[in-house]
Design a protein that fits this description.
Strand content: 5-15%
Number of helices: 7
Length: 226
């Protein structure tokens, strides 16, 4: 499957210096226990605020060019941007999290009690967004962002499944390939274009020691003593 945006020779001016930065918001009470959080406006935890503040250093190191800062309208994303030292240019529902429909606020084990084998990647959210609808939304986002990348860096502050879906579509993979990418709370990914190929240049960058972070989807790091 080809990348969704029309990057022909006339777009070759988009170089590695103009990058797309994806940021997932910091920890919330729901995210740390694995509750699917789409439209619900859940605030950052105290740790989530610290995670967001820690993004300042890696963002400074990226030396972004006149960044356009776009954000999900949800409080957790906007607060993350503020704490990271970013000034939001505009918000939009196109940057919101996957719409989980009836599965909003439920964990995967709870969902699988009545829907065995469910993942958002294979079935989406009932009465919410299907994988195809999410894929189409990401293609629209990418097509819009490419025009800005000709002249400046772009930063998008969003959510876990949103970012993973966009990563998949950026490289032209089916949206379900997002399952193979990880986005920790308050982590960032760097996406680029070398004039020919969409690239994921960096993934999983945090300003905190991520090996110590534990949530519902990440078991504690166990050190073996010999």
């Amino acid at each position: 499957m080809r990348p969704p945006s029309n990057l022909s020779e006339e777009n070759a001016a988009v170089s590695a210096i103009h990058r797309l930065i994806l940021i997932r918001h910091g920890e919330t009470e729901w995210s740390k226990v694995g509750k699917h959080t789409g439209s619900s406006d859940i605030a950052l935890t105290e740790l989530g605020e610290q995670q967001a503040e820690s993004l300042r250093a890696p963002l400074d190191e990226l030396l972004l060019t006149d960044p356009l800062v776009l954000s999900s309208p949800r409080l957790r994303a906007r607060h993350t941007a503020e704490l990271a030292g970013l000034t939001i240019t505009r918000t939009g529902e196109e940057f919101a999290e996957w719409d989980y429909g009836r599965y909003e606020g439920l964990t995967t084990p709870e969902i699988r009690e009545t829907d065995p084998g469910w993942t958002v990647w294979n079935r989406g959210g009932p009465d919410g967004e299907s994988p195809q609808q999410m894929s189409d939304r990401m293609d629209g986002v990418i097509a819009d962002l490419v025009q800005y990348l000709r002249d400046r860096s772009v930063v998008v502050i969003g959510h876990g499944h949103f970012s993973r879906s966009l990563l998949a579509r950026w490289i032209g993979a089916p949206v379900r390939f997002g399952a193979h990418f990880a986005m920790l709370p308050a982590s960032l990914a760097v996406l680029g274009f070398d004039g020919e190929t969409h690239q994921i240049q960096s993934l999983g960058i945090t300003g905190y020691r991520s090996a110590d972070y534990v949530d519902a989807g990440r078991p504690a790091h166990v050190r073996t003593v010999t």
